[in-house]
Write a structure and sequence with these properties.
Elements: E1 5-6, E2 10-13, H1 17-22, E3 29-34, H2 54-71, E4 72-82, H3 84-94, E5 99-107, E6 122-129, E7 140-141, E8 168-169, E9 173-174, H4 197-206, E10 212-215, H5 222-229, E11 233-237, H6 242-252
Parallel strand pairs: 2-11, 3-4, 3-10, 5-9, 10-11
Antiparallel strand pairs: 1-2, 4-6, 5-6, 7-8
Helix pairs in contact: 2-3, 4-5
Length: about 270
């Protein structure tokens, strides 16, 4: 299995995710971040068809979720990004062999109400671990400011001076993500890409430098950029748009992209 690209910290495979996942050893990675296609008939401007039968799509999702669970180390973290309708299915699969940690709600702006439904205002980021988490770090975020007057948006009950100067504890409701995933066409690179802060927070919460992060749907490369930036070893898998990932890594890490990986990714594969 030859990689499409290597960098100082990572390796990218241009292949079907199930082919690569099934070739990997059990218990070999520390963290997985997955942002799968949602089967919403989006135009990816490539050969991928995002309009399969629902039962076939969900069966496929169960397969890659099970494979990801298998290759995760005990105590490792598994994050899955999805719309709520799909997240409830994914959670059912993950509940079998994983421990639920959080349903992280992330602000979604710019959409509209459809039919007899409430206004959809969030995406879900499922956070599971394989048993008790081996690593967990509390992150802090800046106190949100008004973009017009630069004052605090909230008054914090009159106790602003008592807040930690490093910022607020990160909660399971992220208001600064604005995924912007509602466009009909998903042209990479462009506004439909997953915001870097989403996989980066997942990585920082659950891993240390040198740990191995895997993304089975590398897409535009947000997870891989976050891993490379924070000195995590990474494995990316992407079937159609590897050229965009390559361009992104070469743009942000010109001294790293194209170099040999410093970790032995061959050891992740079965003999």
């Amino acid at each position: 299995m030859e990689p499409y690209l290597t960098s100082r910290y990572g390796v990218l495979f241009c292949d079907d995710c199930l082919n690569v996942l099934r070739a990997m050893r059990s218990g070999s990675v520390d963290c997985i971040f997955a942002d799968p296609p949602f089967n919403l008939d989006k135009d990816y401007r490539n050969a991928f068809k995002d309009n399969g039968k629902e039962n076939e799509y969900l069966e496929w999702c169960e397969q890659w979720i099970n494979e990801c669970t298998r290759i995760l180390k005990p105590g490792g973290a598994f994050f899955v990004y999805a719309i709520p309708k799909l997240a409830i299915h994914f959670a059912n699969y993950m509940n079998v062999n994983m421990d639920f940690r959080h349903w992280i709600a992330m602000s979604m702006k710019g959409t509209y109400s459809r039919g007899k439904r409430l206004y959809p205002a969030h995406y879900a980021l499922l956070y599971y671990t394989r048993g008790e988490p081996k690593k967990f770090k509390r992150l802090r975020v800046p106190v949100p400011k008004c973009r017009h007057c630069d004052r605090d948006i909230k008054d914090y009950g009159g106790h602003r001076e008592k807040l930690n100067p490093a910022g607020l504890n990160l909660s399971d409701f992220w208001e600064d993500t604005s995924p912007n995933r509602h466009k009909k066409n998903k042209v990479r690179p462009g506004v439909n890409e997953l915001k870097l802060v989403i996989p980066e927070r997942a990585i920082l919460i659950s891993t240390d430098e040198g740990d191995i992060v895997l993304d089975p749907f590398a897409g535009g490369g947000s997870t891989l950029q976050a891993a490379e930036k924070n000195r995590r070893n990474w494995v990316g898998i992407e079937l159609y748009d590897c050229v965009y990932v390559k361009e992104r890594l070469e743009r942000y890490f010109p001294d790293s992209a194209g170099n040999g990986a410093m970790f032995s990714y061959q050891g992740l594969l079965k003999e």
